[in-house]
Specification:
Strand content: under 5%
Structural class: mainly alpha
Distance between the termini: 85 Å
Order of helices and strands: HHHHHH
Mean pLDDT: 75
Radius of gyration: 40 Å
Helix content: 55-70%
Low-confidence stretches: none
Largest sheet: none
Number of strands: 0
Length: about 120
C-alpha cells in the first residue's frame, strides 16, 4: 500500500508563502572564476602573526608557576598560626576611651530628636 505525499500544516504554509523555487541566484560565471579570485586574494594576504609553539609552552609554564606561588603564599598565610582574636587587656583599653558626645553631636549635626529616632528604630 502506497502512502500519499501528505504535507503537514507547516510545510503547506511554507510552500504557499515561500514559493517553490530558489530564492537566491548567483551571477553567471561566478563559480567558474571563484577559484582564481580566491587564490589571488590568498597570495596577497599578509601572513598572520603566528607564535612558535615554544612561546605558548613557556607562557603556560609561567602561568602555572604564578598560580602555584599564589597558592603557596595563601597556604603559608593560613598555616602560620596567626589569630585575629584580641586579648582582654586590649579590649579594656579600647573601651576606656572617652568621647565628647556633645562635640560629636555638633560635628555630625545631630540633635536630641534625631538621636531618639535612631535609637527607637
Amino acid at each position: 500500500m502506497r502512502q500519499k505525499n501528505v504535507m503537514t500544516k507547516e510545510e503547506q504554509y511554507i510552500s504557499e508563502h515561500g514559493g517553490g523555487g530558489q530564492p537566491f541566484r548567483a551571477p553567471s560565471g561566478y563559480f567558474e572564476q571563484l577559484t582564481e579570485r580566491v587564490m589571488l586574494r590568498v597570495d596577497h594576504a599578509e601572513p598572520a602573526g603566528v607564535r612558535p609553539l615554544r612561546y605558548a609552552r613557556l607562557r603556560r609554564t609561567v602561568m602555572w608557576a604564578a598560580a602555584a606561588s599564589v597558592a603557596a603564599l595563601v597556604a603559608v598565610n593560613l598555616f602560620t598560626g596567626r589569630t585575629t582574636e584580641t586579648s582582654a587587656p586590649q579590649m579594656a583599653q579600647q573601651s576606656t576611651v572617652n568621647y565628647d558626645i556633645d562635640a560629636l553631636a555638633d560635628y555630625t549635626m545631630v540633635d536630641d530628636d534625631d538621636l531618639i529616632a535612631m535609637m527607637t528604630e
